[in-house]
Amino acid sequence: MTVFIVNLAGLGLIGWIVWFFWLSSPAAATAAVSTAGVQEAFIVVKGGYSPDTLRVEAGRPVRLMFNRQEADPCSEKVILDDFGIAADLPQDAIVPVEFTPTEPGDYEFACQMGMLRGKVIVT
Ligand SMILES: [Cu+2]
Predict the structure, then answer these.
(1) Which end of the chain is more exposed for a tag (fewer CB within 10 A), N or C?
(2) Rounded CA gap, 27 and 115, in Å?
(3) Is the distance from CB of 79 to CB of 94 less than 8 angstroms?
(4) How far, in Å, from the CA of 26 to the mean position of ligand 1?
(5) Which of 66, 83, 84, 62 is nearest to 75 (CA)?
(6) Beta carbons of 78 and 45 less than 8 angstroms apart
(7) How far, in Å, from the CA of 4 to the mean position of ligand 1?
(8) Which segments in the chain show pLDDT lower than 70?
(9) How many A from CA of 107 to the centre of ligand 1?
(10) Ion ligand 1: residue ranges with CB closer than 5 A
């Protein structure tokens, strides 16, 4: 009986781990709208983008402020192909990247090698 309970607890734990790491997607951060009507979001670059998913509205300017907090050359550029943007991200600086999405959709941003990824969900 004890063995059975232990197995059940183990299965429950495995299920939780699978759910937590693979199935649950973190809620997308919604960009804050400034008084000038710009949708602003602050993104920390450190082994990835945090947050890595942003929700904005079409037809309004977006300003993503990238703050790279690492020396890893992997993340020294951020590319937004759909908007023709390639920005250098000096370490510890805050680099604003501005564009205005006109069409709803998912727009990816990534480092120059495509290893770090994030996306802007335009609705
Ligand atoms: Cu990279």
Answers:
(1) N
(2) 21
(3) no
(4) 22
(5) 66
(6) yes
(7) 47
(8) 1, 4-6, 11, 13-27
(9) 18
(10) 74, 111, 113, 115
